[in-house]
Specification:
Strands 1, 2, 3, 4, 5, 6, 7, 8 and 9 form a nine-stranded mixed beta sheet that branches. It contains one helix and nine strands. The N and C termini lie far apart (34 Å). It is mainly beta.
Length: 116
C-alpha cells in the first residue's frame, strides 16, 4: 500500500467542497491535512479499490466520517459498514483497521485533549 501525504492546511475563511479536495490515486491511499494542531487534527483521505489501513491502536478517540463510497471499519474485532454521510467514533486504545471495500473518501478527526 502506497501512501501520499499533503502537509499544508486548507486556506482559512474560504469555503471548500471537501469531497473534491482530494483525488483517487491508483493503488494508493492519499492523505491531506485539513487542520493540524497540538490538540488534534483533521485529515481527508482517499482510498483506491483494494486499499485499506493496517490494524493499529491510537491513544486518542478518532471520528471517521465517510464522504464518498462506503468502507468497512473494524473496531475491536467488530465490523461495521459505514456509507457516505455516516460516521463512527473509534475509541482510544481499541484495535482498529479499515478493510478494503471499493473506492471511498473519508474525513478523520483525532481529538488529543482530555487525556492529559
Amino acid at each position: 500500500m502506497d501512501s501520499k501525504s499533503g502537509n499544508l492546511e486548507l486556506e482559512k475563511a474560504k469555503s471548500h467542497i471537501i469531497v473534491e479536495i482530494i483525488e483517487y490515486v491508483p493503488n494508493a491511499v492519499v492523505i491531506k491535512t485539513i487542520i493540524k494542531k497540538s490538540t488534534g487534527n483533521i485529515s481527508i483521505m482517499s482510498f483506491d479499490s483494494g486499499e485499506g489501513l493496517t490494524e493499529k491502536t491510537s491513544p486518542f478517540d478518532t471520528f471517521a466520517q465517510i464522504i464518498e463510497g462506503k468502507a468497512e471499519i473494524v473496531i475491536d474485532h467488530i465490523s461495521t459498514i459505514i456509507e457516505a454521510g455516516q460516521g463512527i467514533i473509534i475509541p482510544a486504545h481499541l484495535s482498529n483497521f479499515i478493510r478494503p471495500n471499493g473506492r471511498f473518501k473519508m474525513i478523520q478527526t483525532v481529538i488529543k485533549s482530555g487525556y492529559e
